[in-house]
Write a structure and sequence with these properties.
Structural class: alpha/beta
Helix content: 25-40%
Order of helices and strands: HEHEHEHEHHHHEEHHE
Largest sheet: 4 strands, parallel
Distance between the termini: 32 Å
Strand content: 5-15%
Radius of gyration: 19 Å
Shape: globular
Strand order of the largest sheet: 3-2-1-4
């Protein structure tokens, strides 16, 4: 595991952290493995300089992330700030266009940047190098706002992030990703927060059956359940219970996706621009 991250990438990241030391830093913090690793590294290198991990709270974020984020911040000796972000001001966002992520990130990080500027802090986020290889229109918003992404800038991939997190003994090293709930609906479907909360409740029910990786995607009128292929046998044991639970949440047609869980499945078939 220790040798899985090339020495040149380690050195580049160490240099980035050295450049940041001695100045206030604000980290957009979700409690996931990317920002979790970055928080740990910053806490080890910042010295007496202020370090502000900030969780951006919106009506589109999963509700269960905050306790884990607070735990990680305490473990690093810093206090988590939860910044409530108003997305209602961006009306176009709620129509869920293909550049939804750009509109959302632009709104969230503009408000975070204002918060950070009052404290004289630069703003970082946990984007990794793999994020630049898939459809991530939100990266354009980060570039426009001048948000730094040390992991991506050093070419560190998701697998390498997990390797470094494991080296540091971070429990979050193996934690599944927890993206915005809007990813559960196809582009063009109105972002109904009540529907998204029902989908979140359904995902939580599946996780409580011992399944780590799950997404509930709703393409009206079908609820499509994605679990990792290696966990399908586990899920199948609860098939009848799952049908009852999902119908209890208001879904009539329930399907298990035989291709299994895959990140960004709602982006399949979309044309990825050369520059995001």
């Amino acid at each position: 595991m220790a040798g899985s991250v090339p020495a040149e990438k380690r050195e580049a990241l160490a240099q980035k952290l050295k450049e940041l030391a001695g100045r206030p830093v604000c980290l957009a913090f979700s409690g996931g493995v990317d920002s979790g690793l970055l928080l740990k590294l910053l806490a080890e290198n910042q010295g007496a300089s202020p370090l502000y991990p900030v969780m951006l709270s919106t009506s589109l974020q999963p509700r269960g992330d905050e306790p884990e984020a607070r735990r990680q911040a305490r473990a690093c000796g810093v206090e988590l700030t939860v910044l409530a972000v108003d997305l209602e001001s961006c009306r176009e966002l709620w129509q869920n266009p293909p550049d939804r992520c750009y509109l959302c990130k632009r709104t969230m990080f503009a408000q975070l940047k204002q918060w950070a500027e009052v404290r004289g802090a630069c703003v970082l986020d946990g984007t990794n190098a793999d994020d630049r290889l898939v459809y991530r229109p939100g990266l354009r918003a980060l570039a426009e706002l001048g948000i730094a992404s040390p992991l991506a800038e050093c070419g560190i991939t998701k697998e390498e992030v997990r390797a470094l997190a494991a080296e540091k003994g971070l429990p979050v090293a193996s934690r599944p990703s927890s993206p915005c709930m809007a990813t559960r609906l196809p582009y063009g479907a109105f972002l109904d927060t009540r529907l998204l909360r029902r989908l979140e409740q359904g995902e939580q029910w599946v996780r409580e059956r011992g399944i780590r990786q799950v997404r509930l995607r709703y393409q009206e009128p079908v609820l499509r359940i994605e679990v990792a292929p290696e966990e399908m046998d586990i899920f199948w044991q609860y098939r009848e219970e799952a049908v009852d639970r999902m119908r209890g949440l208001g879904f009539s047609y329930i399907a298990l996706d035989l291709e299994g869980f895959r990140s960004g499945s709602m982006d399949e078939g979309i044309r990825i621009p050369e520059k995001q």
